[in-house]
Structure formats: structure tokens, C-alpha cells
């Protein structure tokens, strides 16, 4: 079944067949509109794939949407979180409180949840502002002093590794580690029906955010990781994708290859923007093409754009196409 993206107001819980349902859960104030939460039935109970944003409207939509397809939150066996971002993990803790079930997440993202819970409040805000200042953000950095920050998600009970089987008795639901969007992003392959819950890793009409935080890190290369994760899905040529946003689609492998090519072209375009004169990450981000003109982006959106610029610059650096200078300036390779 293929379901095209519609406004949240037009979305309804859907029986996708094979013991799988989708429930749209709103993301307040976000242009994505909603997260598609999936419920997977097994002889041992029902498991959710993701849970949605931690907001009362989202909770009502999740609870009532599940009830529409005959599922009571209190009866859930657990929640597998594809990655720690708030539109996926935000309500997992509340589901656990209501059901007594478990929360599962890849170990790398579980480590980040621990870190963010430690940095909740002013400490985390201070680090974000300093990161933006060092990148040359100017007034945009100051705007982050009063910006809202999402509540950190709940710490998971189960920390998954690549190839682990999820606790879903009678149905083989396997974790596939696909780092890039986050260090611990997981796709989940429901092997008995050859379906894959792709989270944000592979989406049908858009591409996920790939960024580096802090921007000046040189010990990680998330875009290179992401491209390798896309290539890993090349064998899933007959597998139906059930993504966390937009709509379901056939042939995971073809879409993964398209996204890989998109980023390769973006790297070529970025390399052409570099000059022998070193520029800050913020200055380079201003030159790049985004879905709206740079002046129309909010400070938060500019911060995300700079993170994506940093990730692409890091990959160019690892390929010998860009040169890093002190204080996170970049130029063409001498």
C-alpha cells in the first residue's frame, strides 16, 4: 500500500496489512507535520516503532489512534526507537509509564541520551551558543540564549546492537545499524513480510539532516557514515519501506541510491564554493542553497544548516578536497 503525504488534518490511522498499523502523531510547530508511528502485532504482544513528540496533543493522537485500530497503550509490549530525536523518542517514556513495557534504542544513541540528560538546562544551552559563536554566527548565536529546547527523551531499558532481534515473539524484527542522521540510527527489517521501518534514514521525497555537533569536530564524519549506511541497503531491492515521515514506498534500495547521489552532487557544488581564502563554517553555510533563502531562515534553522555544512566540509576534508584551518575555517586544498 502506498500512501501519499497529506496535511496532518487529513491523516488517519491505517491498517497496512500483515499485522502492521500506522498512526500519524503531530509534531507541533514543525513543517514535517507528523511522525508515522507503527504498531507491529505478534503472538507475544504489540510493539511500537517510534512514539512521537512529547506533547499533550501528540499523546492524545497516539493513544486515540491506537485505540482506533484496537490497541490499548497499556497493553503494549515495548517501543523500539529508530533514533533519539524528539519526534521519535519523545513519548517513549510516557508509553513505558502507561504500559510497563520496555524502550529499546541503539547503544550509540542511548549514550547521547545520557549526555543530553546531563546537559539539560543552562549547561546545554551555553554549549550550543558557544558552538555557534565559534562558527561565526554573530547575532544568531545570541538568539539561542532564549530559544526553547526539547525535553530530553527517556533513557532506554534495552541498548541494541547491529543485527539484534527485537523482543517480538514469533516475528523476526531485526535491527540494522544505519548511522549518519544520528550515530545510533536503526532501520528495522520485518523479515517475515520483507518490510523495513526506515525511520529517517530513507524517506521518499526528502532527505534527513546530516550534521556535525559541535561544528568544529574532526573526530567524526557522519556524512561518510551515512553514505556507507545507504550503500548497505543496496540488497533490499524488493523490500517495502515504511518511513517515519511522508509515505510508504517499494524498493528501499533504489531510493537509498538516489539519496546517495544527491549528497555526492551536493559535495561537488560545495567544493566549487570554496576559495583559497579561509572562511568560517557560518560564511560557507550562507553561500549554500537551502529550501529557503538564508535571510528567511530562523536562527535555529541557520544553526542546523551550519551543522549540515560542517558535515559536508568534513567529508570533503576526509577526501582531500578541503583544507581545515585553525578556528574551524575551511578553504580549498593547497
Automatic annotation (TrEMBL):
Bilayer-spanning residue ranges: none
Record-annotated Metallo-beta-lactamase domain positions: 34-245
SUPFAM superfamilies to which the protein is assigned, alphabetical: Metallo-hydrolase/oxidoreductase
InterPro entries noted in UniProt: Metallo-B-lactamas, RibonucZ/Hydroxyglut_hydro, Sec-metab_biosynth-thioest, WH-like_DNA-bd_sf
CDD domains: TTHA1429-like_MBL-fold
Xref: Pfam families: Lactamase_B
Name of the protein this chain belongs to: MBL fold metallo-hydrolase
Natural source organism: Sphaerisporangium aureirubrum
Amino acid at each position: 500500500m502506498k500512501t501519499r503525504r497529506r496535511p496532518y488534518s487529513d491523516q488517519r490511522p491505517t491498517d497496512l496489512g500483515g499485522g502492521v498499523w500506522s498512526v500519524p502523531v503531530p509534531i507541533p510547530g514543525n513543517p514535517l507535520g507528523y511522525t508515522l508511528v507503527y504498531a507491529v502485532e505478534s503472538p507475544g504482544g504489540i510493539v511500537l516503532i517510534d512514539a512521537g513528540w512529547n506533547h499533550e496533543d501528540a499523546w492524545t493522537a497516539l493513544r486515540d489512534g491506537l485505540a482506533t485500530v484496537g490497541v490499548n497503550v497499556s497493553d503494549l509490549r515495548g517501543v523500539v526507537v529508530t533514533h533519539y530525536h524528539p519526534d521519535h523518542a519523545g513519548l517513549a517514556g510516557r508509553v513505558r509509564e502507561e504500559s510497563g513495557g520496555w524502550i529499546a534504542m541503539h547503544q550509540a544513541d542511548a549514550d547521547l541520551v545520557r549526555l543530553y540528560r546531563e546537559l539539560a538546562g543552562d549547561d546545554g544551552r551555553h554549549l550550543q551558543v558557544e558552538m555557534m559563536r565559534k562558527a561565526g554566527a554573530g547575532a544568531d548565536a545570541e538568539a539561542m540564549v532564549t530559544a526553547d529546547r526539547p525535553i530530553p527523551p527517556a533513557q532506554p531499558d534495552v541498548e541494541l546492537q547491529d543485527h539484534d532481534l527485537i523482543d517480538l515473539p514469533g516475528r523476526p524484527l531485526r535491527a540494522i545499524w544505519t548511522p549518519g542522521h544520528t550515530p545510533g540510527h536503526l532501520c528495522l527489517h520485518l523479515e517475515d513480510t520483507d518490510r523495513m521501518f526506515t525511520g529517517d534514514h530513507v524517506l521518499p521525497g526528502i532527505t534527513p539532516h546530516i550534521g556535525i555537533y559541535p561544528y568544529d569536530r574532526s573526530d567524526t564524519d557522519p556524512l561518510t557514515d551515512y553514505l556507507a549506511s545507504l550503500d548497505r541497503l543496496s540488497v533490499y531491492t524488493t523490500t517495502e519501506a515504511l518511513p517515519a515521515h511522508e509515505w510508504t514506498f517499494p524498493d528501499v534500495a533504489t531510493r537509498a541510491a538516489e539519496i546517495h547521489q544527491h549528497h555526492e552532487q551536493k559535495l561537488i557544488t560545495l567544493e566549487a564554493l570554496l576559495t583559497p581564502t579561509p572562511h568560517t563554517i557560518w560564511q560557507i553555510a550562507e553561500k549554500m542553497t537551502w529550501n529557503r533563502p538564508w535571510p528567511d531562515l530562523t536562527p535555529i534553522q541557520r544553526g542546523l544548516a551550519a551543522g549540515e555544512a560542517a558535515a559536508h566540509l568534513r567529508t570533503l576534508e576526509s577526501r582531500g578536497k578541503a583544507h581545515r584551518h585553525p578556528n574551524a575555517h575551511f578553504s580549498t586544498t593547497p
